[in-house]
Write a structure and sequence with these properties.
Rossmann fold; oxidoreductase; alpha/beta; 3-hydroxybutyrate dehydrogenase; 257 residues; 2 domains; EC 1.1.1.30; globular; seven-stranded parallel β-sheet; 8 helices; single chain
Length: 257
């Protein structure tokens, strides 16, 4: 399969899951727009590296996903958006009655509202082209819950609902919208947490990963950013033309429990 000639915009993609998805889309020939809220030489170098490795156009566009006007401007600055991957997200953990209001507002804005604004900006162009793919990165926490993560879980459940509504509004127009629901994914951020968990629980690496970090993931294996990228590529393929308005769990069996 090739996505040559398609332009993909991936929010929150200068590291981790977003960058992994961008790389897999570029591998199949898509031009990619990388994004985060920073605007450093390193950010732009990441885009140059992707372009050089895969022989596609790759640009970095800074935009703060907590700000509606910047979300919409990202799509305009992309100069085209055939594939939209809403990936940007943040997290905060606290009991509901102690949850800081500003953290709630930020999580809802970045994890949920940004997907609304980018989708609203991208759909007219997709409709004009008669083809489009919206892939929203939700979470196993978009289908289930855990304590102390009220804002994140509310936002990710909202992303699943937004995906369904987007699918219904675009059905029969050559556009699909789906949500990918990862469990625990091995990203640089997660990798950096492992030594602290080893120390806190007095366990070796394999034990702390299996019994602490992946306690709710029956496979006892992390998903990888490449696997999430491959799932995204699949959703952009002709095989997925009739897959819309649904969720795909990449969670090692978490939500089967």
């Amino acid at each position: 399969m090739t996505l040559a000639g398609k332009t993909a915009v991936i929010t929150g993609s200068n590291s981790g899951i977003g960058l992994g998805i961008a790389r897999e889309l570029a591998r199949t020939g898509a031009d990619v727009i990388l994004n985060s809220f920073t605007d450093s030489d390193e950010d732009h170098q990441i885009a140059r590296d992707v372009a050089a490795e895969f022989g596609v156009s790759a640009r970095y566009v800074s935009a703060d996903m907590s700000k509606p006007d910047q979300c919409r401007a990202l799509i305009e600055k992309a100069g085209g958006c055939d594939i939209l991957v809403n990936n940007a997200g943040i997290q905060h953990v606290a009991p509901i009655d102690e949850f800081p209001t500003e953290k709630w507002d930020a999580i809802i804005a970045i994890n949920l509202s940004s997907a609304f604004h980018t989708t609203a900006a991208a759909l007219p162009g997709m409709r004009k082209a008669g083809w489009g793919r919206v892939v929203n990165i939700a979470s196993a926490h978009g289908l289930t819950a855990s304590p102390y993560k009220s804002a994140y879980i509310a936002a990710k459940h909202g992303v699943v609902g937004l995906s369904k509504t987007t699918a219904l509004e675009t059905a029969g127009q050559g556009i699909t919208c789906n949500a990918i629901c990862p469990g625990y994914v091995l990203t640089p951020l997660v990798e950096a947490q492992i030594p602290d968990q080893m120390k806190a629980h007095d366990m070796d690496r394999d034990t702390v990963v299996r019994e602490v970090m992946l306690a709710r993931q029956p496979s006892k294996e992390f998903a990888t950013v490449e696997q999430l990228g491959g799932t995204t590529v699949f959703l952009c393929s002709p095989a997925a033309d009739q897959i819309t308005g649904t969720t795909i769990s990449v969670d090692g069996g978490w939500t089967a429990l």
